[in-house]
Specification:
Number of strands of chain A: 16
Helix content of chain A: 25-40%
Radius of gyration of chain B: 16 Å
Number of domains of chain B: 2
Number of strands of chain B: 5
Largest interface: A-B, 25 and 29 residues
Shape of chain B: globular
Strand content of chain B: 15-25%
CATH class of the largest domain in chain A: Alpha Beta
Structural class of chain B: alpha+beta
Order of helices and strands of chain B: EEHEEEHHHH
CATH architecture of the largest domain in chain B: Roll
Distance between the termini of chain B: 52 Å
CATH superfamily of the largest domain in chain B: Beta-grasp domain
CATH topology of the largest domain in chain A: Uridine Diphospho-n-acetylenolpyruvylglucosamine Reductase, domain 3
CATH architecture of the largest domain in chain A: 2-Layer Sandwich
Number of helices of chain A: 11
Largest sheet of chain B: 5 strands, mixed
CATH class of the largest domain in chain B: Alpha Beta
Oligomer: heterodimer
Radius of gyration of chain A: 19 Å
Structural class of chain A: alpha+beta
Number of domains of chain A: 2
CATH topology of the largest domain in chain B: Ubiquitin-like (UB roll)
Shape of chain A: globular
Number of helices of chain B: 5
Distance between the termini of chain A: 47 Å
Largest sheet of chain A: 5 strands, antiparallel
Helix content of chain B: 25-40%
Bound molecules: flavin-adenine dinucleotide, FE2/S2 (inorganic) cluster
Order of helices and strands of chain A: EHEHEEEHHHHHHEEEEEEEEEHEEHH
Strand content of chain A: 25-35%
Strand order of the largest sheet of chain B: 2-1-5-3-4
Chain lengths: 290, 160
């Protein structure tokens, strides 16, 4: 196995074209454990962290651009970012330990294609776009279109994610992410729920609900979003019947695995409960201008 | 496997060594540089026994490929004492019996140092979260947390 550290996107592109089967990586927090558990080592490793564009975070003209290899700790320590995307930030803040977050990237969390990846539901809820380096240029697709199944993505051989873009949230809009894990820290979600919504004159006018870990990929649940849209907010509380419809829709959208960490019935139930709570938190934040 | 010549700074000293590209920084530190403080508990990022600082950031050295160390500044547990004077964390860990078998201790000390460097006055909750990536099978953690609190008090006193 050979280690390479290109300094430009073009150089990385050529390395990948020259060496079929080579692998890009950022934090290696998924790659190394997979290699240790017996997955074949790639002939060439392409470290993306020396490419400045993939390690930078910029905020210009109402748009954030996040290098795909940037350690998530760089974002969770960025107060402008966490204030604007509290839910996406809390999702990143749940990945492993401080040691892991000093390395883990959004590109790796997404491209690893684990159904339980914490940042993915929150990225989808926020409409994040991925800019992908192709053989001879770039293409931009919504994050929701990258993962096609556990461990599988729509990225072609030789393609890699360069950066993510997302627009500023308006003041009346906010997000929240909650997950359930059997331990209290350092564990993988058995359910994750991301909610992003807009509140105008005490009515929810827009809502997106995305669940993680309850199906082969993260799933957007249109029925759950619809349950919130039009719901009235009284003294900060979302109308109870809307919350019940929301929870039922979230539970119904689950197609989870059954294992010792959580049965199907438990994961379904928890998906409803977490989604109610995430919606309540997002409303509180939207009304407080967060 | 190709071998790469790597030049970096470890505990303030310039060093260079040869390592196969797939070698972890942990193995390079232990086998090429003889710095056996950082331990391998798991090799997969779960236990934190291999924790080191790379350019001031806390990392699991088992997840870092040795060639990534090129040009960086690394601090291991061997580098936190001031010559013969133990680091306040090392002293309070000894006095507070914050270790039994000692396998986790080098990693815990580095993680605790990273915390106190960034946040000299952490709450107990902050200490517990900051050390969540460091598993200890012996102490039950309470003596570790108390010793970090005591070191924080001493360091603040010294800074005054
Ligand atoms: C102890 C521990 C705890 C963890 N806890 C969590 C957790 O709570 N929640 C969670 O979601 N994850 C968790 N993880 C998994 C992991 O840390 C995350 O998925 C992380 O975000 C992966 O990022 P990375 O940069 O380290 O990926 P890498 O390991 O570098 O890469 C992962 C995969 O993505 C590919 N890849 C990386 N970057 C790109 C790119 N730019 N373009 C295309 N492909 C790319 C690689 O080829 C590889 O297949 C944990 C891991 C460990 C070791
Ligand atoms: S040996 Fe590196 S985290 Fe366990
Ligand atoms: S003292 Fe034995 S593992 Fe911590």
């Amino acid at each position: 196995m050979r280690y390479t550290s290109p300094t430009t996107v073009d150089e990385a592109r050529s390395l990948l074209a020259e060496h079929p089967g080579s692998r890009v990586f950022a934090g290696a927090t998924d790659l190394v454990p997979q290699m240790r558990s017996g997955r074949p080592a790639p002939p060439v490793l392409v470290d993306l962290k020396k490419i400045a564009q993939l390690m930078s975070v910029t905020h210009e003209n109402g748009q954030w651009t996040i290098g795909a290899a940037t350690p998530t700790a760089n974002l969770t320590r960025n107060h402008d970012f966490t204030a604007m995307f509290p839910g996406l930030s809390e999702a990143m803040g749940l990945i492993g330990s401080d040691q892991i977050q000093n390395r883990s990237s959004l590109g790796g969390n997404l491209a690893n294609a684990s159904p339980a990846a914490d940042s993915v539901p929150a990225m989808i809820a926020n409409g994040v776009q991925a800019v992908i380096a192709t053989a001879d240029g770039t293409r931009t697709v919504p994050v929701a279109e990258i993962v096609t199944g556990p461990g599988r993505t729509s990225l072609a051989d030789g393609e890699f994610i360069v950066e993510f873009t997302l627009a500023d949230t308006p003041a009346d809009t906010s997000d929240a992410y909650l997950r359930m894990i059997p331990r209290t820290e350092m564990d993988i979600a058995i359910v994750g729920s991301a909610v992003r919504l807009t509140v105008s004159d005490n009515i929810i006018t827009d809502a997106t609900v995305v669940l993680g870990a309850v199906a082969p990929t993260a799933v957007t649940v249109p029925d759950a979003g619809a349950a919130l849209i039009g719901a009235a907010i009284n003294a900060g509380q979302i109308d109870d019947s809307a919350l019940n419809t929301l929870a039922d829709a979230a539970s119904a959208a689950c197609d989870p695995i059954d294992d010792k960490r959580g049965t199907v019935a438990y994961r379904r139930r928890v998906a409803g409960v977490l989604t109610r709570r995430a919606a309540a938190t997002a409303v509180e934040r939207a009304q407080n201008g967060a | 496997m190709s071998r790469t010549h790597i030049t970096c700074t470890v505990n303030g000293d310039p060093v260079d060594f040869l390592a196969s590209d797939g070698t972890s920084l942990l193995d390079a530190l232990r086998d090429e540089l003889g710095l056996t403080g950082a331990k391998e508990g798991c090799g997969t990022g779960d236990c934190g026994a291999c924790s080191v600082l790379i350019d001031g950031r806390l990392n699991c050295s088992c997840l870092v490929f040795a060639p990534e160390a090129e040009g960086t500044e690394i601090v291991t547990v061997e580098g936190i004492a001031d010559d013969d004077r133990l680091h306040p964390l090392q002293q309070t860990f000894l006095e507070g019996a914050a270790l039994q078998c000692g396998i986790c201790t080098p990693g815990v000390l580095i993680a605790a140092k990273a915390l106190l460097d960034a946040n000299p006055d952490p709450t107990e909750t902050e200490i517990r979260y900051a050390l969540a990536g460091n598993l200890c099978r012996c102490t039950g953690y309470d003596k570790i947390v108390r010793s970090v609190q005591e070191a924080a008090v001493q360091l603040k006193g010294a800074a005054r």
